[in-house]
Design a protein that fits this description.
- By secondary structure, this protein is an alpha+beta fold.
- The protein contains 4 helices and 6 strands; from the N terminus they run E-E-H-H-H-H-E-E-E-E.
- The protein has a single domain, classed as Roll (Thiol Ester Dehydrase, Chain A).
- Strand 4 and strand 5 form a beta hairpin.
């Protein structure tokens, strides 16, 4: 198992997840098809060309789901009981086909369950598009999604 047990999480620690992913048109199309979300802003190039974005944007729920997936090996792979909540979701900038995203998680809180057998861990997750043609901050990255993820984690010593 590569995930972290409750005891391994340190409040204030930021985990820069090594895996990145370039999002393709096909990724976005399949996600919209699977979830039956036929929003033309995601799927219809002609429609999207007349919006403020000027082109199709990637479904925000796909961006968030992908972000969670990219965090799993470094956080909860094989050490989770359940995801408890996703809170304070924001999408400050769009994601476009061809954008590459990276993710980082910061542990913001942790506490044992009332019976002491497990632990609840909350992480702030941030998703960045890397180097989008000079846009973004000094590091060339643009924040495209952020949220809090709260998990019920196994304890290593029970």
């Amino acid at each position: 198992m590569t995930g972290l047990y409750y005891e391994d999480f340190e409040v204030g620690e930021t985990i820069a997840h090594g895996k990145r992913r370039t999002i393709s048109e096909s990724d976005n199309q399949r996600f919209c098809d699977m979830t039956m979300n036929q929003q033309p802003l995601h799927l219809d190039a002609d429609f999207a060309s007349d919006t403020d974005f000027g082109e199709r944007v990637v479904n925000g729920l796909y961006t968030m789901s992908l972000a969670v997936g990219l965090t799993i090996p470094d956080t909860t792979e094989g050490t989770i009981v359940a995801n408890l909540s996703y809170d304070n979701v924001e999408h400050p900038s769009p994601v476009y086909h061809g954008d590459t995203v990276r993710v980082q998680s910061t542990v913001t809180d942790k506490r044992e369950t009332s019976d002491g057998a497990r632990g609840v861990v909350t992480m702030g997750v941030e998703v960045f598009v890397v180097d989008r043609d000079g846009e973004g901050g000094a590091d060339g990255e643009t924040l495209v999604c952020s949220f809090e993820r709260t998990v019920l984690a196994l304890k290593e010593e029970q």
